[in-house]
# Entry
Amino acid sequence: APPVIIPEESKKWASEQKGNNEKPLVMLFPETVWKTREWPATYWVDLAWKLHSMNLDVRIFTHDKNDKFKNTPSFYWGQNWTNLAALMQLSLVVIGNDSGPVNVAGTLDVPALALCGPTTAVCFSHVPSVEVVTSALECTGCYFGEPFRAACDQGCRSLFMLEPELVVTKIKRMLRPTNIDKIKKVLATFN
# Structure
């Protein structure tokens, strides 16, 4: 794959956003185009506070101002993609639905968790840094084929069964010193 080139001004912006904060950065992206692939907003808010209580620098990013997320530790909207990509490189992990931000993180080789319904891990096999996190409900209707139901248009029952505590368990595993050292090396290249 061709190397990703992030503009220097975006790297500078990301470095300023990270600042001297020694806490590992976790970026949350709760939005997706497809309602069927959207983890509930209440779970995102709960996850943000659980991770914040673990002494992590937790930030939620949305496309437009979305009041569902105003009661989280840090909420941002309207950022451009090159800035977000630069900040992703300084992150311990990017967490999102089966959506663009998780794919961008994977392209940058940044650890990412894709919160999915019964989607198979194969859909992210081209980006090994992305881990698919799913529940155990067997329905495989995510690609709008059988047994996709009319109710799926309102949200995925399997995705609703994926609780924030499972995601927290995955993050705890990522808090190894080697992952944090990798982030510090990337930050050093930004300065």
